[in-house]
């Protein structure tokens, strides 16, 4: 059963367990979802503006084309989740854990993601413009097509990450940890002829 356009604004739904539930176009603005656990749930085009997710756990759930505006994501755990096409605006990402998640086409522009572990994730065509990724762990992350203009990457670890030539030109990689393959690709993207 799918819940469509339901109004959950300011609802207190903390510490609940949701399994295989579907939501389309639902409004969760300012809802209390602290400690919520979801498994196999789908959320399509839902609004999570100012929602408090602190301490929540999500497994094999999909949050597609959803809006997270000034949402509290501190201490959340996301495992095998899809965030495809979702938008994050001025969210709190302290102590967030993503494991085997697909964040393709997400917008994380201008968010503070310093020291966040984003290793091994799919961030294909993600908007990371002006995001603060200082000290972030991006090892093995797929950043193909990601927009990195103005992103702060000082101290970030990009070893084993996949970045296309456009991303290597846009990004300021000063102080970034890279492997030999990325260093060669970076040099080639900047017009060096390598022999």
TrEMBL record:
SUPFAM superfamilies: Pentapeptide repeat-like (SSF141571). InterPro entries: 5peptide_repeat, Pentapeptide-BTB/POZ_domain. PANTHER family: BTB_POZ DOMAIN-CONTAINING PROTEIN KCTD9 (PTHR14136). This is Pentapeptide repeat family protein.
């Amino acid at each position: 059963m799918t819940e469509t356009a339901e109004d959950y604004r300011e609802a207190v739904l903390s510490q609940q367990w949701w399994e295989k539930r579907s939501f389309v176009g639902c409004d969760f603005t300012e809802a209390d979802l602290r400690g919520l656990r979801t498994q196999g749930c789908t959320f399509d085009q839902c609004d999570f503006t100012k929602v408090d997710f602190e301490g929540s756990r999500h497994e094999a759930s999909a949050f597609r084309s959803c809006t997270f505006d000034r949402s509290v994501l501190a201490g959340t755990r996301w495992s095998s989740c899809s965030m495809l096409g979702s938008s994050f605006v001025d969210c709190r990402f302290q102590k967030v854990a993503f494991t085997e998640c697909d964040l393709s086409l997400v917008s994380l522009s201008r968010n503070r993601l310093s020291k966040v572990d984003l290793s091994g994730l799919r961030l294909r065509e993600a908007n990371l413009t002006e995001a603060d990724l200082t000290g972030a762990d991006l090892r093995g992350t797929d950043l193909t097509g990601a927009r990195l203009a103005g992103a702060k990457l000082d101290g970030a670890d990009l070893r084993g990450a996949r970045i296309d030539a456009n991303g290597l030109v846009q990004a300021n990689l000063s102080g970034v940890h890279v492997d030999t393959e990325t260093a060669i690709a970076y040099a080639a993207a900047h017009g060096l002829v390598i022999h």
